């Protein structure tokens, strides 16, 4: 039983994710300082994420995925049970970055032996999500807007995507996803490892 002074128990997914992040760092033989240097994330933030004191943001997970050579779906799948070939809608994993207004649903179950996956993204009106690097350089992405409008910037080129539009690109550097509104943007992201 937790002492009331300790605060609420961490979210179970955040706790499993924190433990997995600590395992990955230990497997490399890195200190928090080593990982901070490689990722550009402060030691204190890394430590708090590993102890599940904070819920990691999409940007933080993206930086760590880059260091560990994984996509975000692969990392998130590592904290779940063994993937199955069929995932019912009600069982698809949903992860939310409350700070940025981003909700991510893993539509297809990621599997280490496969290179492609489908992810549903939702950005609230006014949300602005920036990644300073791809989780895997040369990652292929297909972004299909299902509802609303989405502004995507990659390699300093901006693209305005309206409902039904699809953008295909390879990601080598920073990317930005922005929903100017007035409503949310909902899109399907097909990710293919190089």
Care to describe what's here?
With 194 residues, this protein is of the alpha+beta class. Helices cover 26% and strands 31% of the residues. The protein is built from 5 helices and 10 strands; from the N terminus they run H-H-H-H-H-E-E-E-E-E-E-E-E-E-E. It has helices at residues 12-28, 32-39, 43-50, 58-68, 72-77, and strands at 94-97, 102-106, 116-123, 128-131, 139-147, 149-154, 157-162, 166-171, 175-178, 185-192. The strands form 2 sheets. The chain has a 6-stranded antiparallel β-sheet, with no helix packed on it. Strand 1 and strand 2 form a beta hairpin. Helix 2 (32-39) packs across helix 3 (43-50). The radius of gyration is 17 Å and the shape is globular. The model is unreliable at 1-5 (pLDDT under 50).
Index terms:
single chain; 194 residues; alpha+beta; six-stranded antiparallel β-sheet; four-stranded antiparallel β-sheet; 5 helices; disordered N terminus
């Amino acid at each position: 039983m937790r002492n009331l002074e300790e605060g609420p128990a961490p979210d179970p997914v955040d706790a499993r994710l924190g433990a997995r992040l600590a395992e990955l760092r230990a497997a490399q033989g890195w200190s928090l300082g080593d990982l901070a240097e490689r990722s550009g994330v402060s030691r204190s933030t890394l430590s708090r994420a590993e102890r599940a004191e904070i819920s990691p943001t999409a940007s933080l997970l993206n930086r760590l995925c880059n260091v560990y050579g994984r996509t975000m779906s692969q990392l998130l799948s590592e904290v779940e049970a063994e993937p199955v070939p069929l995932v019912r809608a009600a069982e698809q994993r949903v992860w939310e970055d409350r700070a940025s207004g981003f909700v991510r649903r893993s539509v297809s179950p990621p599997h280490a032996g496969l290179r492609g996956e489908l992810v549903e993204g939702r950005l609230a009106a006014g949300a602005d999500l920036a990644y300073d690097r791809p989780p895997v350089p040369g990652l292929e992405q297909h972004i299909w807007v299902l509802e609303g409008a989405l502004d995507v910037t990659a390699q300093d080129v901006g693209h305005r995507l309206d409902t039904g539009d699809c953008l295909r690109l390879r990601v080598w550097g920073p990317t930005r996803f922005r929903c100017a509104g007035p409503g949310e943007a909902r899109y399907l992201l097909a990710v293919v490892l190089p």
